[in-house]
Amino acid sequence: MSTRRILRLTAGFSLVIAAVTACGDGPAPDAAGGGEVSGEVSVMAVWSGDEHAAFQAVLDGFTRENPGVRVTYTSAGNNLPTVLGTAVEGGDPPEIAVVPQPALVTQFRERGALAPMDFLRAAVEADLPPDIARLGVSGDHLYSFVFKAANKSTLWYNVAAFEDAGVKPPGTWDELVAAAGTLKAAGTPAYAIAGADGWTLTDLFENIYLRQAGPERYDQLAAHEIPWTDPSVVAALRTMTQVLGDSANIAGGTAGALQTDLPTASAKVLTDKPGAAVVIEGDFVPTAVADNPAVRGGEHYSVVPFPSIGGSDPATVVGGGDSVVLFTDTPASRALATYLSTAGAARIWAGRGGFSSPNRQLPADAYPDELARTTATAIANAKTFRFDMSDLAPVAFGGTPGQGEFKLLQDLLANPSDVDGIAKRLEAAAAAAYGG
């Protein structure tokens, strides 16, 4: 599930960015128009707080290159689907929006609300990994492109805990299972599990399933073209219990894990006095503990890609992303959309941290530290990329705390021996949500 639903506070405000007040970070990237375009462009996205400030810096770069364009930014926070949907229904959408849910892009496209961006298709297909570029294509047209991406295929570990136990960061699932046993014997629980946040369990399942069943079956399951009782699903759930199944190797035990949120689980691993050695979650784990004084800038922890399973390609990523869509095609909106597709625009936010770009033209040194470079370049270099499956599902199944996939994977954590029963209940919930 998108972490915004859990980690971001809803906020709503507007900011007009004009050339006379623009002030940005570093040299401006090349933008379409070179100062010759004029007009007004309204932009809506979810970003507030620090993320808004970073996106403002990106937009400032555009206005420096295009002083004749006035850009108005509105943050809709977590209410973006409702706010944007209402604006579209009322016939007054922004010229551009940046949306985190592929289903929302599909909804607006099917209603005929989006303008195709075929003027960008060649650049998008050249600059983004094929699987990510394809996300925005429907039929013969490009309707969106990913501007800001998230890597959910990462394993964060406490360096001292690994060194004290004499284990190395795992590159394969078998190495992870072996390391977990060694860590337990050395006196440190292997895993910190954020079981109170059911969406973290969906991320674990998706990473296992993509590597174990492959991208074709992943796509089929995401569309509910195969049932959750399919043998490939049952096999992935059983693999998942190799992490969830040993209460003694989970910080706080199973009962504690079911009461632990992501910031708490992350803090158990990322400090100098670890309560666990590993937390398996996305590139946003450090952000979850950014306000924790016991966590000091990557001093005690590091990150590796999610382990390969059964020989799966290491360059496999489950992730998310915020995609640019165009509602009104004007010279000014084209110029801004073109600018947002460039590595130059991405560089501005990348240098501030908390940002990963799928653009392969953005050099690794654009990121502020080695951890960010590791997680971000994995997206740009992905040979297989799939969007978070729960974000593709109906909200009743893949996006609501206390029901659907969230609740049933929590039940698997509570009772890891009931794999077959959980699979049947997952299928019943999916059938109801997908409509049969």
Provide the fold topology.
Layout lengths: L3 H4 L5 E5 L21 E7 L3 H17 L3 E7 L4 H10 L6 E4 L2 H9 L10 H7 L2 H5 L2 E2 L2 E2 L2 E7 L2 E5 H7 L7 H13 L12 H16 L1 H8 L8 H14 L8 H5 L4 H8 L8 E3 L4 H4 L12 E5 L10 E11 L4 H10 L2 H8 L19 H11 L3 E4 L1 H4 L2 H4 L5 H11 L4 H16 L2
Parallel strand pairs: 2-3, 2-4, 11-12
Antiparallel strand pairs: 1-3, 4-11, 5-6, 7-11, 8-9, 8-10
Describe the structure.
The protein is α/β, with parallel strands linked by helices. It folds into 2 domains: 4-151 and 320-385, Periplasmic binding protein-like II (D-Maltodextrin-Binding Protein, domain 2, 3-Layer(aba) Sandwich); 154-315 and 388-434, Periplasmic binding protein-like II (D-Maltodextrin-Binding Protein, domain 2). It contains 21 helices and 12 strands. It has helices at residues 4-7, 49-65, 80-89, 102-110, 121-127, 130-134, 159-165, 173-185, 198-213, 215-222, 231-244, 253-257, 262-269, 285-288, 331-340, 343-350, 370-380, 389-392, 395-398, 404-414, 419-434; strands at residues 13-17, 39-45, 69-75, 96-99, 137-138, 141-142, 145-151, 154-158, 278-280, 301-305, 316-326, 384-387. Strand 5 (137-138) and strand 6 (141-142) form a beta hairpin. Residues 3-35 have low confidence and may be disordered.
